[in-house]
Amino acid sequence: MSYSTNEIKTNLLSGLTVALAMVPEAIAFALIAQVSPLTGLYAAIIVCLITSVFGGRPGMISGATGALAVVMVGLVVNHGVEYLFATVILMGLLQLIFAFFKLGKFIRMVPYPVMLGFVNGLAIVIFLAQFNHFKVIDDLGISTWMSGTALYTMLALTLFTAALIYLIPKLTKFIPAPLGAIAIVSFITIYFNLDTKTVADLGSIGGNLPLFQIPAIELNWQTILIILPYSFLLAAIGLIETLLTLNLIDDMTETRGRPNRESMAQGLANVVTGFFGGMGGCAMIGQSMININNGALRRLSGIATAIFLASFILFLSSWIEMIPLAALIGVMFVVAEKTFEWGSLRLFGKVPKKDIVVGLLVGGITIIADLAIAVIVGVIVSALFFAWDHAKKINVNHRTNRRGWKIYQLDGTLFFASVKNFQELFDYKNDPKDVIIDFEKSKVVDHSAIMAIDNIANKYKNAGKKLHLVHLSPECLEILDTAKEMVEVNLLEDPKYHIADDKLS
Predict the structure, then answer these.
(1) Range(s) of the domain holding residue 432
(2) What is the model's pLDDT at position 390?
């Protein structure tokens, strides 16, 4: 697929912006996991590059993340970094197994309130995480809040960066606003010799590219018992965060990513990362939002990000380490603000209480505990609500139009639990020669529903009658077999939603 000159510029500049924003994140996550900063940067380079080339969601950025780092720290402290590398390799293999069995489709069945809670909770997590940079380590090794001039300088630079990000697009579209803001604030800081924290305060990023190495551990049953629980948890968290981010970008861009392909790429990336001394990774919602908001929706943006990160380590470490942390904090503050779904606050009193409960529950657990737990709890609670309201229940109203055609107007959700009742709604023998099934007020969820529609189409066909299917999603049309030719397409009226099916993954 060819790139226009403008697309190349957009994706390259966005890649540079994302790379700059990833440096402090990668270092910080490495420190959380109690490994060297380069271990986090190696993961950022390798995971970002491989997922950008082979992944199922162009424009999404992957790298070392905090959600994974907090799980890794216990393993590193108790067993050492070599066990971490082995764990990351096994984590990748588990993700490859997940992709092989095409389980990524089930992310489509995560309810919208869960997605909303995930997005808002993660936005708050991104926002709160930045305040750690406003702390300093005293002589006793105790972390305390900054004070006096140092605090005011850092706050001023942070707010100035955020203001520039909103202002620059009104003046020029030539460069991404975050990149322009980082450049301006860095210039001011260096030119006026302002005393403020820089990237160098987190740790040195200078070094060489990683080399292939087999983890220096004894491979036996005892080792497997140590690393397997960590690998399984890391694989689950990584895939959940990745596929939910993929879903979010799908909704924002009105496109469709490939969850199984993305799962495969994530698994491959983590296997390779483990052999090259990286801490593993998954999709990064903050950096992905920077990329998407910059208009970078091609694979080139992620590839450029990885190349820029590698060049920072090899050639530009001294320059990158001079960037004030305040500039990067300002960027992440804006990312948090743009990620948060402010419109969700207007939903109170307008949507069912159960949706509000699920959204708040997921958001709260994401903030105070763990993303994977939050999503699992949210899906379970949503499933219970759904089962209570909709399981095995689908309604139909039927009438006859002026031409003598019988119209079945469906109302409800068509999925594996309701297909039996759905198939019993039709009078194949006594219906007239032309029958319309209208899906305008219903939603097709999974492959069981698709098979049920095809089955009904076969029965009407065998009865010598003509079936017309209206208001089906384009994705339904794509994977129907017998009924494909019976769908009447109306681009303006047909609903647009995603369904869970292997053919679309």
Answers:
(1) 395-504
(2) 64
